[in-house]
Amino acid sequence: MIQSKLMTRFYFDGQGFDAKSDETVLDTLIREGQQVNYSCKKGSCKTCLVKHVDGALSTGSQRGLTLSLKRDHYLCACQCKPTSGLKLKSVLAQNLFTSAQIHSKQYLSDSVVKLRLKSSEKINHCPGQYINVRRFDGLTRSYAITNDPLDGFIELHIKRKYNGQFSDWLFNHASVGESLLLQGPWGNCCYSTTYVDDDISLIASGTGLGLVYGIALDALKSGHQGQINLYHGGRTSDDLYLHSSMLQLMLAHRNFTYHGCITRSQSKEALSMSRVQLGDPFDIAMMYFPVQVKPDSKSRHRVYLCGEPDFVLKGQTSVFLNGVALNRIHVLSFDYKDLRSMSRT
Ligand code: FES
């Protein structure tokens, strides 16, 4: 009895649930054994979307959603604190996903494949955003978009992960013509023409390169005037999977410079590759940063970071301490990658 007073009763698909005081809607549904989609629990991946039917919505329930999703009463179950009598309902996949097919597959290295997807409806996006990809059995993952929307395709760089159920399927088994579902795009780690005179550092690890490469192309195509430095980190030179494209881009644009950064000592041959240095991409990038004691709002420096969460967090701290204001640091962290089609047990 005392317990129920501390609980907040809300309704999902007509069924009543009692949330504990520190729980979100998603937490309660998971605890109650409901089959719900979720992954990041941070409001990033948007796989936990549900619809608002009635009752008061807690602040932040719709944070990060597009205007049209807000207008259509969607919210993130992981960001919603239940209020008494709140009524929510589940959503059908077809209301959120667009059908698409694999248009082409190109292997960029032994472990990275480039996919071009053609969607049935036009998807407006920019390089720097990400999209959720769902296959026939409901398994879903998120990937960074690497191209601009003008050619009508969605381009993704997929790294085959050890034991990666989805990435291995895309890399080895999915064929051209394979049907997929797409949800998104999300995120705003994009270039803007208002940055035209800024000096930009693009720092990425692994397939984060695809995203920063797309941003570099977008900036150069928009007539960017400031200097652009792109740092790509990998363990060995084999991980620098767009090395020759980067060199060509350098030749074509006097304000674009590429730095391949490898962290594992290799043969002299590997290290003699043009523009490859031994070292952490942040340590190498810092060598080119103007040294400032504290973040300077007048600085023309702007930084984009993309890769695994640890890498991005380390980079954010590092560039902030080197004088780049937080509003000039743009990040896309791969912490939304582990999307589930079923609830975790
Ligand atoms: S947005 Fe809710 S689980 Fe990712």
Automatic annotation (TrEMBL):
Gene3D superfamilies: 3.10.20.30, Nucleotide-binding domain of ferredoxin-NADP reductase (FNR) module, Translation factors. The keyword Oxidoreductase applies. Keywords: Monooxygenase, Oxidoreductase, Ubiquinone. The keyword ATP-binding does not apply. Residues 6-94 form the 2Fe-2S ferredoxin-type domain. SUPFAM superfamilies: 2Fe-2S ferredoxin-like (SSF54292), Ferredoxin reductase-like, C-terminal NADP-linked domain (SSF52343), Riboflavin synthase domain-like (SSF63380). Its cofactor is [2Fe-2S] cluster. It comes from the Bacteria. One of its GO terms (molecular function) is iron-sulfur cluster binding. Residues 95-192 form the FAD-binding FR-type domain. This is Methane/phenol monooxygenase/ferrodoxin-NAD+ reductase [2Fe-2S]-component. It comes from Shewanella violacea (strain JCM 10179 / CIP 106290 / LMG 19151 / DSS12). The lineage of its organism: Bacteria, Pseudomonadati, Pseudomonadota, Gammaproteobacteria, Alteromonadales.
